[in-house]
Amino acid sequence: MKASSVTRGVPASLAVRNWAWWQTPWRLRVYVALVPLVALGLACYAASQTTWHVSDLAKFLLLMGCGMVSVAATPAMPSPRAVSPGTSSASGCYRSRSSCHRSTPC
């Protein structure tokens, strides 16, 4: 019995040096990586300078729950699949969120 293509692809994706990230010029990597690193640093600094109360945790959990319900309740928008050469629009084939896990084309 053969392993599925997903399990065969996992070890290949763990080879970090083969990622496209490492084929880009170093200046571009620094530029791209700098934005989330600075944002993380500023968020940590802001969190360390804030006074926290127990009621803040309850508000956070309430807002997190509302956000999760909102995301779960939002219907999936169809996204265009790859446009084949020679076509002028991507209106040929769309997939919804529920059909993204199928192995056959739509």
3D structure, described in words:
With 106 residues, the chain is mainly α. Helices cover 49% and strands 4% of the residues. The protein has three helices and two strands. Strands 1-2 form a two-stranded antiparallel ribbon. The two termini are 27 Å apart. Mean pLDDT is 77; it is low at 90-94.
Descriptive tags:
mainly alpha, 49% helix, 2 strands
Brief characterization of the structure:
It contains 3 helices and 2 strands. With 106 residues, it is mainly alpha-helical.
- Low-pLDDT segments, ≥5 res: 90-94
Largest sheet: 2 strands, antiparallel
Give the H and E element order: HHHEE
Strand order of the largest sheet: 1-2
Query: Any idea what the shape is?
Result: extended
Helix count equals: 3
Overall residue-averaged pLDDT value: 77
Structural class: mainly alpha
Number of separate strands: 2
Helical fraction: 40-55%
Write down the Rg.
22 Å
Q: Which band does the percent of strand residues land in?
A: under 5%
N/C terminus separation: 27 Å
Assembly context of the chains: single chain
